[in-house]
Amino acid sequence: MLKNLFRRKDKEPIPDFKDVHVTLKPILGIRPGVYLTVLYGLIILALIFVAFFLEGILTNGTYYRFQSEPVQAGVWIDGEKVGVTPCEILVKKGAHTFTLKRPFYPPITIEKEVGSYLFSVPFFPKLDTVNVVMKEPAVTELAEHTYHEFMQWMLVKDFSTEYQYPHLLTQAAMSIYARPTEETYLALKQLLAESLPHIIQPEPARDYLNALLIVETKGGPFSPGSFMRLLVSLRTALSTNRALPFWLYALLPVNRLVSTDTAPSPFPPAKADLEKEVWFQKALTAYRDLVTESAIQKGAVPGPAFGLAGLTFKPVPAASYLMGKADDPAAILDHNYL
Q1: Which residues pair with 334 in a beta bridge?
Q2: Which CATH code is given to the segment(s) 56-133?
Q3: pLDDT tens, position by position, 60-72
Q4: How far apart, in Å, do the first and last CA atoms of the chain sit?
């Protein structure tokens, strides 16, 4: 039956539409050419309205770009946090209060009468800028907070693109531009000095060097005086940092890298080459001796264990704490902090 149905359809002649013509009739006496032109014009006007004006009418406000120095200041509009600098926020038309806050800096409040821009908002939005320079940070508190946060990050074994080190020392060093005083300089110098012995990875090491460069400018442009202070600071760091051999060990590749550079290098090409150096073997022996001699005080009674965030901690008597293991030179550095 289905076959017969299809056969009948196949045999039906296909109509010829060549001679078919469609003629529009006048409407209310208006010729088709006139009212079609008007209709097309209205459609074009509607598209222009939707594309260039509707968004502006619906938003009824202005886009603001918030910037601050230093960055990462919280942006609050009428008491509600809306972002962190740098950011772009749509602010509704009317009177508003902008507040920018950053830890250890006095907040900055701005009263603003926000207007409205209607034309071409989706394609070329009108941007007003709020750019503030935060001044007079509480440098001592900032340095202490940075140090404690820095120490927590130093417990991380490996950094990656998914788990990036936040360059805490550089962020703290930027405060010298907001408050270029001797007090700020000394507080940041102390922060860098106390942070240095704990660095054994490339990213924190770069952060330290960048922060040191900023601090030695004392809030001004880089000058010959800044250069001399930087050299003195680097010399002091190299001479006093007992973990320096293990910095180098941590930065070297496991295997030798293929290079077209024929110039001699003052550094060993790989970890195995450094382990053969006599001075490195002496540094490693000195560290192992330090581990052996740093025993917990005899006779001291530790306190009861306690739980924190799902972990159990057992107090121990005061001692010289060490981070790292004698058989892992890449993790070696000594601590004198309780």
Answers
A1: 322
A2: 2.60.40.1120
A3: 778 889 998 888 8
A4: 95
